[in-house]
Amino acid sequence: MIRSRALLAVTAIPASVLILYTWHPWQNFSRIDCRRGRQQFEREYGRANLRLSRGSLYRLKKFMDKVAKGESLTISVVGGSVTRGHHVWTEEIWFSRLVEWIRSVSPRKANHISVNGATAATGSDYFSYCYPLHIPSDSNLVLIELGINDSAWEGHIVNLENLLRGLLEMESKPAVIVVEAMAFANGGVGGGGGRMHLPVAQYYGMSFCCQRHPLASHFGRYPELLRVYFSQNYWGDPDTWHLNARGHYDLGMLIASLLLDVACSPPPIDPIPPEASLPWGVEDDRVPPVLPGRFMNSTELDTLPRLGVLDGWDPDTEHRRPTWRPICVSEQSPDATTSLHPVMNDGWVHWEDPDGQTKPYLTTQTPGARATFEIEVGDVGRVKVYSMRSRDLGLGLVRCWVNQDEDQAVKVVGYWDNDASIGRLAVVREGVAPGFHTVTCELLEETADPGGGHEFRMIAIMR
Fold first, then answer.
1. Residue 437: count of CB within 10 angstroms of its CB
2. How far apart are CA 402 and CA 372, in angstroms?
3. 146 contacts 124 by C-beta, under 8 angstroms
4. Which end of the chain, C or N, has fewer beta carbons within 10 A?
5. 216 near 210, Cβ under 8 Å?
6. Per-residue pLDDT tens for 165-219?
7. What is the C-alpha to C-alpha distance for residues 284 and 434, in angstroms, rounded to an integer?
8. Alpha helix ranges (H) inside 380-434
9. Degrees (nearest 5) of the Cα angle 76, 78, 83?
10. Separation between Cα atoms, residue 194 and residue 180, nearest integer Å
11. How far apart are CA 357 and CA 234, in angstroms?
């Protein structure tokens, strides 16, 4: 009865008045002062700190300022076969589309150089050592697309971190974006290497631009979209490793939208405004001791963390990760002076896979074939061999050793039970002293391949 009387009372209110008193779920939000509220939070914590899920954007903001001023810029990318342009024309590659967009928003006089340093069948383990061979050291923006070729293996956390530190410490101080192209291969629906890359990008304040986020669940509801977005193989089935031109275009524009947001966002508000410094040697008792704030200010956004992402906590501020300065010689190097050239060769040949993806190797199929390389070892002190791994290519195994220490030889296996045919690292020796050394590899009669294959495909030697 009470409820019905209430209803009768409401119906007695004129319609014009009733509209004024109608409550909507969002009505209370109209009383929120968005501008003042945002400023309050930003003054206390800093906009960059509050938005770190997108990265600090510090270097990206500087990059876009240079774009707006019409400065000459170098834009580079490292990646796998997607970025190399498998199944699409060069002008259709997402990186080409992105560079085209950057040029479209730049003054006409601007001279932007683009360098596509992608190589097929390689991951962050390769580029963490070999990136200097593929992109110039004066790059202003570097994009990393390795989320497909990297599997969901914890070692790729360290590989991507080394790559990031090396790029961020380049003299040009480039902006860096970690990119994950859409694919349903080498990992679950939630991604493979991208799952390893995301926490590293977040720790270093880098933007992580993932094409999977807006698409994966949508494709799960509409599987027919695979043919719209992915290239097709010989039998007409979607190649879920490689985007088609539509997928490339969308990925390029996804990154372009991030750059546009950065260019159009207001300048950050520091949580700690800079104070005027006292003259050197002057003390003032009225000035309280300066303590660090709970959150970073803008002067810290361009500094590398002193601890690695997987390091344990260490309060000793003298303990920090050393500068990452890798050395690499590779068959995939565009410069012949940094390619694999044995100083002694018995039975190995330079060969390029005819599948059209530009995959050069130093290879042999003859057991007992040996190749010796002279290498310079730096501060890293670790010698590694990068070679092809595959279940389907009939790959054998080699043994490799440093200098004359044949008794310390390590076996490097080509076969593995994995769908992917891709390069992977193998450690030959740790703790090698800086200086010049030799590395020798010999193909064995022994093989792990069920079909008895012996071929071995070497890509690079790193140290």
1. 18
2. 9
3. yes
4. N
5. no
6. 999 999 999 999 999 999 987 777 777 888 899 999 999 999 999 998 888 889 9
7. 50
8. none
9. 100
10. 6
11. 16
Q: How far is CA 172 from CA 62, 102, 112, 304, 441, in A?
A: 12, 19, 15, 15, 37
Q: Are 395 and 444 in contact, with CB atoms under 8 Å apart?
A: no
DSSP, collapsed to helix, strand or coil, labels residue 231 as strand
3-class state of residue 299 by DSSP: helix
* DSSP letter, residue 406: G
Query: 265-285: buried (b, 16+ CB within 10 Å) or exposed (e) per residue?
Result: eeebbbbbeeeeeeeeeeeee
pTM of the complete model: 0.85
Q: Nearest to residue 63, comparing CAs of 51, 78, 54, 74?
A: 74
Q: Is the backbone of residue 240 left (phi > 0), alpha (psi -120 to 50) or beta? A: alpha
Which tokens go with 455? 């071929």
Q: Which residues contact 22 (CB under 8 A, 6 or more apart)?
A: none
The enclosing H or E element of 164 equals: helix 155-168
What phi and psi values does residue 18 have, to the nearest 5 degrees? -60, -40
The tokens 């899920």 sit on which residue? 53
CA distance 4 to 358: 79
The Cα angle at residue 251 between residues 247 and 253, in degrees rounded to 5: 120
Residue the block writes with tokens 């002694």? 344
Side-chain half-sphere CA neighbours of 71 within 13 A: 13
Q: For residue 332, what pLDDT is reported?
A: 92
pLDDT digits (tens, 9 = 90+) for 376-388: 998 778 999 999 9
In order of start, what are the domains of the chain with their CATH numbers?
Answer: 2-34 (no CATH), 46-264 (3.40.50.1110), 328-462 (2.60.120.260)
Residues 122, 459: Cα–Cα separation, whole Å: 10
Question: Between β-strands 410-413 and 370-377, what pairing exists: parallel, antiparallel or unpaired?
Answer: unpaired
The helices-and-strands tally (H runs, E runs) of the chain is 13, 18
What are residue 437's phi and psi, to 5 degrees?
-140, 170
Single-letter amino acid code for the residue at 321: R
- pLDDT level of residue 66 (50, 70, 90 thresholds): very high
Backbone angles phi, psi at 361, to 5 degrees: -140, 160
Beta strands in 184-237 (DSSP E): 207-210, 230-232
